[in-house]
């Protein structure tokens, strides 16, 4: 239930906040519409070759053709299911590893240089190896999505846990609290913002991992459409797939942002 303003000044302040939020949202929509309009006009006036960069109208027509032949939802469903699965597994495993490393400080010190190296390692290079190990199927694509987001999630969440103030932990120890109590009452609440930040980062990283996996081995999915469209020079199909990816990635990001809003209220 929304609380009532305590004064006229408070009411004016809340009104200004809502007005600024509307202005930001309208500006975002306006920029998007301007870019789409400029893209369409540029293609019509031949400012650039529409065969290479396509145009909004051609992208919409391509999506309509995919919908008409019944393949649109197959490709969207394939990529979305792989991404969501990779995102959930990568986030859960990363958070659990972060908890383990916080719980065992000596293990954290031992593994710290390896985490740094793994974080810098381009996981995409492991794609061909994963295909040999796991096989050419959905499993290898999901594992790629997990690997891309796993280390980033671990490092981000662990840094949030380690940033918890020593004073509060010392006070809890003085009062006889166990390590589990210290973690649940002090460290975990302090690490929630970093966990949310890790979720936001993991969303994008999961999409990258899954699309790269589909580049390497896939018979369906948006990544497959991008590769196929590039091979047969159907660049409208490539741009349509990219546009759908942008929409899906934005929806997942805003879902995480909605979760963040619920957690912090």
Which labels suit this protein?
265 residues, mainly alpha, 0% strand
- CATH fold topology of the largest domain: MetI-like fold
Strand content: under 5%
The helix count comes to 11
CATH C-level category of the largest domain: Mainly Alpha
Number of strand segments: 0
Mean model confidence by pLDDT: 82
Form type: flat
* Structural category: mainly alpha
Rounded Rg? 23 Å
CATH H level, superfamily name of the largest domain: MetI-like
Number of domains: 2
Note the run of SSEs as H and E. HHHHHHHHHHH
Would you identify the CATH architecture of the largest domain?
Orthogonal Bundle
Helix content: over 70%
Distance between the termini: 12 Å
Low-confidence stretches: none
Main beta sheet:
none
Textual characterization of the structure:
The chain is mainly α and 265 residues long. The chain is 84% helix and 0% strand. The chain contains 11 helices and no strands. It is flat.
In short:
With 265 residues, this protein is mostly helical. Helices cover 84% and strands 0% of the residues.
Topology:
Blueprint: H1 8-44, H2 50-53, H3 56-68, H4 72-103, H5 105-120, H6 127-134, H7 138-162, H8 166-174, H9 179-216, H10 222-231, H11 235-264
Helix pairs in contact: 3-11, 4-5, 4-7, 4-9, 4-10, 6-7, 7-9, 8-9, 9-10, 9-11, 10-11
């Amino acid at each position: 239930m929304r609380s009532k303003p305590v004064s006229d000044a408070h009411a004016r302040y809340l009104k200004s906040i809502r007005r600024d939020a509307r202005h930001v949202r309208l500006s975002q929509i306006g920029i998007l519409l301007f870019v789409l309009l400029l893209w369409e006009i540029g293609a019509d006036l031949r400012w650039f070759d529409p065969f290479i960069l396509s145009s909004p109208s051609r992208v919409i027509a391509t999506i309509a053709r995919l919908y008409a032949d019944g393949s649109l939802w197959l490709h969207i469903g394939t990529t979305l299911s792989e991404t969501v699965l990779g995102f959930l597994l990568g986030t859960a495993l990363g958070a659990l590893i972060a908890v383990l490393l916080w719980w065992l400080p000596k293990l954290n010190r031992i593994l710290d240089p390896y985490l740094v190296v793994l974080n810098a390692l381009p996981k995409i290079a492991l794609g061909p190896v994963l295909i040999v190990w796991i096989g050419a199927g959905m499993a290898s694509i999901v594992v790629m999505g997990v690997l891309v987001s796993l280390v980033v999630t671990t490092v981000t969440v662990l840094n949030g846990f380690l940033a918890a103030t020593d004073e509060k932990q010392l006070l809890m120890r003085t009062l006889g609290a166990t390590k589990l109590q210290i973690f649940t009452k002090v460290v975990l609440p302090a690490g929630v913002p970093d966990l949310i930040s890790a979720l936001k980062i993991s969303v994008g990283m999961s999409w990258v991992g899954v699309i790269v996996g589909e580049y390497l081995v896939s018979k369906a999915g948006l990544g497959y459409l991008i590769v196929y469209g590039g091979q047969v020079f159907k660049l409208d199909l490539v741009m349509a797939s990219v546009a759908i990816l942008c929409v899906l990635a934005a929806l997942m990001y805003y879902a995480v942002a909605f979760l963040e809003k619920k957690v912090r209220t």
